[in-house]
Amino acid sequence: MSLLTLVQEVAGSLNLPQPSSVVGNTDSDVVLFLTLAKREGRELFRRHDWQKLVVEHTQVSLATVAQTALPTAYDHLVPDVEIWNRTNDTKYVGPVASNEWMRLNTGVSGGVAGWWRLIGGALNIYPAPTAGETIAFEYVSKNWCESSGGTDQSTWAADSDVGILSEELMALGVTWRWLRAKGMDYAEEMATYEREVEKAAARDRGLKVRVVGKSRDEDYPPFPFWNGTINA
């Protein structure tokens, strides 16, 4: 479903004429549809860390504390993020609080591989890594739609753009937002939308089943063991 077909679907459900174009259309209802479609995309993307927007990012290290700027699509790190140096298989400790970071930069060391902190739109690593190593971490992208050619975008820009997030949810969202903008009753449509968003978020990722009392270490592959029998 493209932006155009999304708006046409919503217009049809509201018993309104279906437009032949959206972007650049000067009809007041179509302009409102586009505005609401953009708002819906932005707000839906913030509702949940959708797995379709999670990006595994790798970058080549610089021999300085401040590394290269974060990707332009970056919005925020995934929960419980881990940042690894894949060249030497070490994990950096972080995010480090401001006061601890200041102490580290005075030369205090705790004997670990290093620490990280986001400052000024860039990943900072102390002590500075060796240049040319591979640093990897995951983040959530702010690009919730894409062009017909597959280029990720953070907003609708053409009628042929398609959603990376569920366009069915976006259509429900635009519907209740349009009713509200027009001063009409939108409670039922909004409630339906909220239920569908909650269900989509709940099934978005596979959740690991945890056993009460099970230690975290049991999640990792067991050490080799001998399964023979010892005779007394």
Task: Kindly describe this structure.
There is one protein chain. The chain has 232 residues and is of the alpha+beta class. The chain contains five helices and eleven strands, in the order H-H-E-E-E-E-E-H-E-E-E-E-E-E-H-H. It has helices spanning 3-13, 28-47, 98-104, 167-181, 187-202; strands at residues 54-60, 66-69, 74-77, 83-85, 90-92, 115-119, 122-126, 134-141, 145-146, 152-153, 162-163. Strands 1, 3, 4, 5 and 8 form a five-stranded antiparallel sheet that branches. Strands 2-7-6 form a three-stranded antiparallel sheet, with no helix packed on it. A three-stranded antiparallel sheet has the order 10-9-11, with no helix packed on it. Strand 9 (145-146) and strand 10 (152-153) form a beta hairpin. Helix 1 (3-13) packs across helix 4 and helix 4 packs antiparallel against helix 5.
Query: Which series of helices and strands comes N to C?
Result: HHEEEEEHEEEEEEHH
Mean pLDDT: 87
Quick one: overall form? elongated
Number of strands: 11
Helix residue percentage: 25-40%
Structural category is alpha+beta
Tally of helical runs:
5
Radius of gyration, taken over Cα atoms and rounded to an integer in Å: 24 Å
Strand content: 15-25%
Oligomer: single chain
The largest β sheet comes out as: 5 strands, antiparallel
Question: How is the topology of this model organized?
Answer:
Layout: H1 3-13, H2 28-47, E1 54-60, E2 66-69, E3 74-77, E4 83-85, E5 90-92, H3 98-104, E6 115-119, E7 122-126, E8 134-141, E9 145-146, E10 152-153, E11 162-163, H4 167-181, H5 187-202
Antiparallel strand pairs: 1-8, 2-7, 3-8, 4-5, 4-8, 6-7, 9-10, 9-11
Helix pairs in contact: 1-4, 2-4, 4-5
